[in-house]
Write a structure and sequence with these properties.
The protein has 357 residues and is α+β, with helices and mostly antiparallel strands. It is built from ten helices and ten strands. It has helices at 53-75, 86-116, 126-132, 215-218, 224-241, 243-261, 273-277, 301-307, 336-339, 341-344; strands spanning 6-13, 23-28, 37-43, 137-142, 146-152, 156-160, 166-167, 194-199, 209-213, 265-272. A five-stranded antiparallel beta sheet has the order 1-10-9-6-7. The radius of gyration is 20 Å and the shape is globular. It starts with 5 loop residues before the first strand and ends in a 13-residue tail after the last helix. The relative contact order is 0.16.
């Protein structure tokens, strides 16, 4: 069995304005034909109308993992048998996969309702029950043949390519308005699933970093540019210091982001160590001294204590905030300033989170 080069990271932090973390995530596999790399994150809606969405998000991730394993098995060569063609797999990914996933989620939700509800509320239809469990979903599968991903609702799939370019391939054409988002509880939700499809033409063209995250992370930035800078910096920090170091500070990074978005914040990522070893990287410069920390929003003290300080064992984290800016990169989290503007085409001298909380 071949050795896979992927290191995975996952972390979820409860939002400072939340009474319960509605996010759920998973990361497993090695990116081989036998064990596809699978990443998934789901964000339960959390309002009173979606009172069981913490269960809906967990069901979504668990069922995605099941479907993703089946997809990986279909893509796997078996002895002398030819595997399905890429054209057949693409059709399966775009049409069959979403329909099977949504159908399985609905069945799981209605089964949970039947087992755990002491009585049927008058006039409560199946659609009303599904609404209680509403959740988004972002998931990805990587095999030696293909990289595919799916998204329903908000959140992000972020890919750092072999050339270092950062992209968000499943971003919607039009952003959702306010807090409205597509959901697994939406009627005919499978028709609203967005699919990313990318055959792996050569091992050297495999992405350097694949990440899925809930919108609690992206909303903590003042602009989309700030979020892309964060992800480029995550790739830089992994290349410079390794996955173990980043895992140690990830809770503090997300904890600080959560203070700004007020939402549950979850990130699941897979880093291609083989791609990092094949590239020439300058060591990350030491972080600048931390500036005066921004004011913590009301109610955020407990979350800050849980997540730890933004300093962490490797210096200030990537955390959003008015103090985290300047020519050396915001917060010195190995960010875009380490890569240089030529690497991302982004301005690295401004605070990506703006000047307020």
């Amino acid at each position: 069995m071949t050795t896979a080069p992927w290191e995975t990271l996952r972390q979820s932090v409860q939002g400072v304005n939340k009474t319960r973390n509605q996010d759920y995530c998973d990361a497993l596999g090695r990116g081989t034909a036998e064990e596809p790399l699978i990443l998934a994150v789901a964000d339960g809606h959390g309002s009173a109308v979606h009172a069981r969405s913490h269960l809906g998000s967990r069901f979504a991730v668990d069922l995605f993992v099941e479907q993703a394993r089946q997809f990986g098995e279909l893509a796997r060569p078996r002895g002398d048998e030819r595997p399905p063609s890429l054209a057949w797999l693409m059709h399966y990914a775009e049409h069959t996969f979403p329909r099977q996933l949504v159908s399985a989620w609905r069945e799981r939700v209605l089964g949970n309702w039947a087992r755990t509800s002491s009585h049927e509320e008058p006039g409560l239809t199946d659609e009303d029950k599904l609404l209680l469990y509403g959740s988004t979903l972002v998931g990805a599968v990587l095999t030696p043949r293909v990289f595919a991903a799916w998204q329903l609702g908000d959140g992000e799939l972020t890919v750092v390519g072999d050339d270092g370019r950062v992209s968000v391939p499943l971003a919607p054409v039009e952003a959702d308005l306010g807090d409205e988002t597509e959901s697994l509880c939406t009627p005919e939700a499978w028709l609203r699933v967005r699919t990313h499809w990318a055959p792996v033409t050569a091992p050297s063209r495999t992405p350097r970093l694949i990440a899925v995250s809930t919108d609690g992370l992206s909303k903590s930035f003042a602009s989309d540019r700030g979020f892309l800078q964060f992800m480029a910096g995550l790739d830089d920090r992994l290349s410079a210091e390794g996955a173990a170091t980043v895992r140690a500070v990830l809770p503090a990074w997300l904890g600080k982001a959560s203070q700004h978005s007020g939402d549950d914040t979850t990130l699941v990522a897979a880093w291609n160590t083989a791609a990092a070893a094949g590239s020439v990287l300058e060591p990350a410069p030491p972080p600048p001294p931390p500036a005066t920390p921004p004011a913590v929003p009301a109610g955020a003290a407990d979350a800050t204590a849980t997540a730890g300080t933004a300093e962490g064992p490797t210096g200030p984290g990537p955390g959003p905030g008015p103090a985290d800016h300047g020519p050396a990169g915001y917060g010195g989290y190995g960010g875009v300033a380490d890569a240089g503007p030529a690497a991302t085409g982004l301005d690295t001298t401004t605070d990506p989170h703006g000047s307020g909380t």
